[in-house]
Amino acid sequence: MAAELPQAVYVQADLALEADRVRLVREAIAAWGQLDVLVNNAGISKVIPHGDLAAATSAVWHELHEVNVVAPFHLVALAESALREAARCRRAGCVVNISSHAGVRPKGASIPYAVSKAALNHLTRLLALSLGPDIRVNAVAPGLVDTPLTADWTAAQALWRERAPMRRAASPDDIAHAVLMLVASDYLTGEVLLSDGGLNLT
Predict the structure, then answer these.
(1) Of these residues, 40, 95, 113, 120, which one is catalytic?
(2) Under CATH, to which class is 12-196 assigned?
(3) 70-94 confidence digits (pLDDT tens)
(4) Per-domain boundaries in the chain
(5) pLDDT of 112-168, one tens digit each?
(6) Which among 1, 76, 165, 185 counts the fewest CB atoms within 10 Å?
(7) Is 187 a catalytic site residue?
(8) Is the peptide bond before 49 cis (omega within 30 degrees of 0)?
(9) How many CA atoms lie within 13 A of 16 on its CB side?
């Protein structure tokens, strides 16, 4: 992806590791001298039937919570001063968290995953309240997105084709456009934008 964008910089980091989160923000600011937008897109999941409580071990809960909740919070905390500087020099700093419709509805690959995304949604609102007006914080909560990861999710694909008003899953571009819309707005904050093709209406 960095090769496709002439001025992009690629920094590899494992967001489960606190030291990597620190390095990621430090290197981004070093590369550009400023930080205007933070998109917390990294996340992990575990597929566990909701009724199989024994399989949802403490280790699974801790692993998902660390990456899906703690890491986004920590990255915002690390980026806060740079995002506030953006507000002083240009326009409000902006954070967009990538959540999931599983954090809004009782769905998802597993209970620990869904709960982690529900926590991320509430974190989004709490941060928006705490950091405004210098920093806006919103989230996009996608439903099914067509990616190599979901290519063999036949039941989910059928569900979206048959029940969602848009009759299809999202494309990555659909979600990217939703993120860009939130970045472009100078007024929206504390919103969790459910982007599931209307499946939530059924």
Answers:
(1) 113
(2) alpha beta
(3) 999 999 999 999 999 988 888 899 9
(4) 12-196
(5) 999 999 999 999 999 999 999 999 999 999 999 999 888 888 889 999 999 999 999
(6) 1
(7) no
(8) no
(9) 8
